[in-house]
């Protein structure tokens, strides 16, 4: 963590953190459906930032940067920042 030089020689700074998959969210929703007799077998579900299907850990991110991460999350949820669905969407 800290000072970093990319392959093209540019200086940068980065922080390594983790992305969390909200498996608890998925399990809870599927268990509720099963309990209601509406288990959605055979269907494909995608869990996103909305509803806490995925999140980022704070880790060793300083408070100023964490605030920026949280603001970016809010902008993504509000549709102000578009996140690519796949790597091919980045080109």
From TrEMBL:
This is Basic membrane protein. InterPro entries: BMP_lipoprotein. It comes from Lactobacillus equicursoris DSM 19284 = JCM 14600 = CIP 110162.
């Amino acid at each position: 963590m800290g000072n970093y030089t990319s392959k093209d020689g540019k200086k940068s700074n980065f922080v390594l953190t983790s992305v969390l998959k909200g498996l608890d969210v998925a399990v809870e929703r599927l268990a509720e459906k099963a309990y209601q007799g509406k288990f959605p077998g055979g269907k494909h579900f995608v869990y996103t930032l909305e509803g806490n299907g995925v999140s980022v850990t704070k880790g060793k991110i300083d408070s100023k940067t964490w605030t920026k991460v949280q603001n970016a999350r809010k902008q993504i949820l509000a549709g102000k920042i578009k996140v690519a669905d796949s790597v091919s969407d980045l080109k």
